[in-house]
Amino acid sequence: MRIAVVDDSETFRAYLQGLLAGRGELSAFDTAGDCLAALADPAQPPVDLVLMDLIMPVMDGLEATRRIKANPATADIPVIMVTVSDDDASLSEAFAAGAMDYIQKPPRKPELLARVDSALRLKAAIDARKAREREIKAEKEYIAAILEYSHDGIAVAGPDSRFTFVSPGMERIFGLPADTYTTADRWLDIVFPDRAARDDLADIVAHRPAPGHVWRRLYPFADKNGQRRACQIHFSTMPSGDLIINIQDMTLFEKQKEDLVKKHNRHQKDLDAAAEIQQSLLPRRFTMSDSLRFAWEFVPCDNIGGDIFNVFPLGPHHVGLYMLDVSGHGVASSLVAHSVYNFMHYQRSTLVDRTGGAIDVVPPETVLSRLNDEFPFTKFQKFFTIFYMTIDLRDGRARYGNAGHPAPWHIPARGPMAELPTRGPIIGLADLPPVPPGELLLASGDKLLAISDGLADSRDAKGESFGEERIAAIAAAQAREPVDVLVAALRRAADDFRQAAPPRDDLSLLGVEFIRPKA
Amino acid sequence: MQVTCEEMDTALVVRLSGEIIMDAVTECRAEVERLALASAAPAVVVDLSAVAFMDSSGVGFLIGLRRLCQDHDKTLSLANPTPAIKKLLAMLRLTDYFAAPQPGPARS
Predict the structure, then answer these.
(1) A150-249 is classed in which CATH architecture?
(2) Domains of chain B: total
(3) Which PANTHER family match (chain B) (predicted)?
(4) Segment A337-368, tens digit of pLDDT
């Protein structure tokens, strides 16, 4: 710390400096004017204590002390008067001028040091208190700035619902000057025209969450122009019982959410429409002829899949049937499925050759090869699996091609059921070997069951798959039943297994039964 | 689906895990394709040992990736398929299509 010694006697200044050696830095002045100038000069080191001579020419110690005390920048510096006179009048004057202490010349060293130390301790305490005050002031300003510039509105309501604090953010959110509402009730009346919201808020203001708990809710409100907006409010209670209300404007967020829901609904409507179209393409449920009957079940996945199947007459003596599953699901897969459906229409030359007046049924492996040319993977970035079969109703001779589809089951009228063994690769990749031809002779009462992989891949709530073994077991148990009973049993088992949850992929079941050769 | 990647001298090994289904494919396709093309290795090996389930979207994704590699003079093969995926690839008759390329005659 620094001590200033002011005395017009050079000898006395030197004497004091000698006594004060080791008590900190010393500055010596021979006039009060020089001392005042130095104290006022920010470039000079700050002084913590002044030892002031009382009687000096030009300006005496009393006047100098008065001036030090009158200047707020120096008023905290303690002044000790050092003088020869010790009469009551001089003492009174010195204390009246603002001196904190008084030492008689010539000072005795222990007394001087004790008084100087005491003054310096006082100055240090004053400095520390002032520094803390500055810190507190800065903190307060900082918190005020946070509240001023925070986008959130913050209000504090006392136990009587009167607002003890309202941040400027409230004005930004609700568009009304903060002093529009002095109580929480008044605020509720003005900005929450919605009856339910107002009642709910009034209830919270009245009951308040327990300290440590936060309640958060979304409320509609009206701004100053009556526009509907939305805010989210956090309620918490201070230990004192005051309710802190923290408000965020959620209008934009809510609007975006609303738009998203609208978009989603539109999208869902499109999906539903696409699913309806997909289902409209499925075969009608009827028995085709005395020679053949069929049954099917179809469970679409919740966001439309790429399964399609059909059974149709092919020329005068044949029936064609196929089941296909386009990779992926969604609108793109279903559009590809529709496209294949059109390509596979029974009146098209894809399936029958009408040359020279004859109607020749195109062998399935040739049809699949045509599909492979027509639907390369690169066209839609999709592949599909398809099982296609033609049945000659006159003798039950069936020919088929299976491009990567789960093997259909042949369930003979007599003997054990078996998977159709011949199978080739999926449709869409030109550089794979062609689908080999398969053949089968259907006897009266034989059945065929084609299933898309959606059934085996179905999962129950625990994540377990339905599996092929389960399909085989149910089919075997129902093997002697009519085809519609067989197919319905599988559908029921699948529905029970999923417990009403929609399947992850389309689920298609198609069964045909060769009743007897066509006369 | 999670994707991790290890660059070896001769091959980039892309390890997929979780379920390779439509949503996962939509999310990760671009990243895997970028990884495959950024690698200097002439072969891309997709390790499926940690894949719990793959649907047709996943197969379509791998076919697309194989074609992309082919277009950039790289090979793509699948490694360590789980029994379920092995069965799926066998049903689709794609086992050979995704098998590691046999070392052919040395190219000059």
Answers:
(1) 2-Layer Sandwich (3.30)
(2) 1
(3) ANTI-SIGMA FACTOR ANTAGONIST TM_1081-RELATED, ANTI-SIGMA FACTOR ANTAGONIST TM_1081-RELATED-RELATED
(4) 999 999 998 777 889 888 877 888 999 999 99
